[in-house]
Amino acid sequence: MTSELPGIIQWTAFVVVAIVIVGRYLLVAQTPMDRLGTRALLFGLVCDMMRNASVQHAITRVCWMFDDAYVINVVRQISFGPLLLSIMCIYGMARFAASPDDDWSTVARRQRRYDAVALTAAAVILAAGTPARAHNMLIDEYQGWGAAVVWIAYYSVLAASSVSIIKMMVAELRSGDNTTREIAIYLVVLGYFGYLTIESIYVPAETVTAVVAHTAAQDPSMQSRAFTAFVALVVGTAILTVPLIGVLLVRTGWDRPGRYCRRIRPLWRDLTDSYPEVVLERPATGTAADSISQLHRMTMEIRDCLVRLNRYAPGAPPHRAAGSEHDELCDYARRISAAVAAKRSGQLPPPPGRTEYSAHPAQRRDLEAELNQLVELSRIWRRVHGRSGITTAFAAAVPGRSSRSPR
C-alpha cells in the first residue's frame, strides 16, 4: 500500500516527526515511558516512510537487480514490521503504567519479548503475503486466505495494545487528579484506540467473510490502511510533543513559574542587593534550573528582605483612609524604596517602637494570590524605585537619622 496523500503533506509530517524524535531523545528521556514513547514514534516514522512513493522508488534504484514491482510489494509488506514494533512499544507503555516502579533494565527485558512477538507477527504477514507478491498485487487486492491470516496476525497485536491503552486511560481519568489539558489528551487517546479496537474486530471478520463468499475486498488499494497509519503517526506525534514543549518551556523560562520569576526579578534584584546575605545557595554550574524551586527561593528571599527593610520603612499613618489594593501597593512600594535608599546611604533604622503602624500590606494566604501580589508590586516597583528624590523624601519623612558606613 502506497499512500496517495500529497507528497508535501507527507514530507512535512516526516520532518516534524523527525524533529520531535530528536528533541525527545535529547530532552525527554528520563523515564522508561519517555524512551518507549520516542521508540514508538521512530518505528511509526519508518513505517510511513516505507509507504511513501518516493522512498519506494529510491529503494528500487538500490535494488536494481530485482523487478521494481516486486521490490515495492516487498517493501509494502515489510512496512508492517516497524508498525508492529511501534504498536508493541505502546503496549509496553501501558504495561509500565501498571507497574511504574520497574527500572529500565526490567522494562527493556520485557520489551524484548514484546518485540519478538511483533517480529513473529511480521514474519507471518510476510509469509502469508507471498502469493500476493508473486502476482505483483496488494494483499487485499489478491484477497484469499493469505489476506485473512495477515489481518488476523496484525490486528491481534493491535487489539491487545489498544485494549491495554484504553484501560490505562480509563484508570487515569478515574484518578480525578488531572488538569483540563490532561483530560483532553486522555479523551483523544481513548477515542482513537477505541476506534482501533473496533477496527481490530471488524477487519478480520470482514476479510474472512469476503474470502468465504469469494467477494472482493472493500478497499483493494488499501488506502484506508495507509491513511490510518499516517493519522496514527500524526496523532502520536501531537501527543508526545506535549512533554517536549513542557521541557522546552522550562529550559527557556517560559513556563508559568519561569514567567513569575521574570516578573518579580527586578524587585528581587534590588532588594537582595541591599541584603545579599539572604540569597540562598544556587544549584551548581551546569545543573538544570528548576523554575519551581527558583520561584520558591526568590519569594522566600524577597520576604526576608522586606522583613528586614521594614525597620527602615516609615509606616502608613493609622488615621489614613483605606484605599484600593493597588493604592496600598503603590504606597508600600514607595516606602520600601525609601527604605532601600536609607539602607544604602548608611542610615540607621529608627529606634524600636518609633513606628507603631504596619509598614507592609496584608499578606495573602493563597499562594497564587500572593504571587500575583508580588508581580504587581514588582511592576509598581520598577516605576517607583526609578524616581529621583527618594532619599530626600525619606529624610523629610524620618528626620534626625544618624548615619553609618554601609554594610
Strand percentage: under 5%
How large is the count of helical segments?
16
Most strands sheet = none
- Multimeric status of the protein: single chain
Average pLDDT over all residues: 83
From N to C, what is the helix and strand string?
Answer: HHHHHHHHHHHHHHHH
Rg calc: 33 Å
Note the gap between the termini: 78 Å
State the shape.
elongated
Helix content: over 70%
| SS-based class | mainly alpha
Q: Could you list the spans in which at least 5 consecutive residues all have pLDDT below 50?
A: 355-359, 388-407
Count of beta strands: 0
Care to describe what's here?
The protein is mainly α and 407 residues long. The protein is elongated, with a radius of gyration of 33 Å. It contains 16 helices and no strands. The longest helix has 34 residues, at 180-213.
List the helices and strands and how they pair.
Elements: H1 7-27, H2 32-50, H3 53-62, H4 68-78, H5 80-98, H6 104-128, H7 130-134, H8 139-142, H9 145-175, H10 180-213, H11 223-252, H12 256-274, H13 291-309, H14 325-345, H15 367-384, H16 390-397
Helix pairs in contact: 1-2, 1-11, 2-5, 2-11, 3-4, 5-6, 5-9, 6-9, 9-10, 12-13, 12-15, 14-15, 14-16
Summed up:
This protein is mainly alpha-helical. The chain is built from 16 helices and no strands. It is elongated, with a radius of gyration of 33 Å.
